[in-house]
Write a structure and sequence with these properties.
single chain; alpha+beta; 4-stranded antiparallel sheet; globular
């Protein structure tokens, strides 16, 4: 199992719009092969910051299967990417203990 982590800084004042768009977008990612689970959490100290945690079966399920899925990834991008400032850094983790 691989954990994808992204800190999403949303443009201030766009938080509600982002959350509505994410409701649609999560169905796209959840339909992908290798997808296991997803959490989106909102920061208490900085209300425009979100933590995205996605669990995948393998790294390639995310980096190849999802990101190179054509229309589905393009729809994800169209729904969400314009909300971010700056654009998030995405990292992947594996359990060690």
């Amino acid at each position: 199992m691989v954990l994808e982590l992204a800190i999403l800084d949303v443009i201030r004042g766009k938080e509600d719009e982002f959350e509505r768009a994410f409701t649609e977008a999560k169905g796209i990612i959840a339909s992908m092969p290798g997808f296991l689970s997803l959490e989106l959490q909102r920061c208490l100290e900085a209300r425009n910051r979100y933590l995205l945690l996605v669990r995948w079966s393998t790294l390639e399920d995310h980096t190849v299967g999802f990101r190179q899925s054509g229309e589905r990834y393009e729809r994800w991008r169209a729904l969400l990417h314009h909300f971010y400032d700056p654009f998030p850094i995405v990292e992947h983790y594996e359990a060690v203990a």
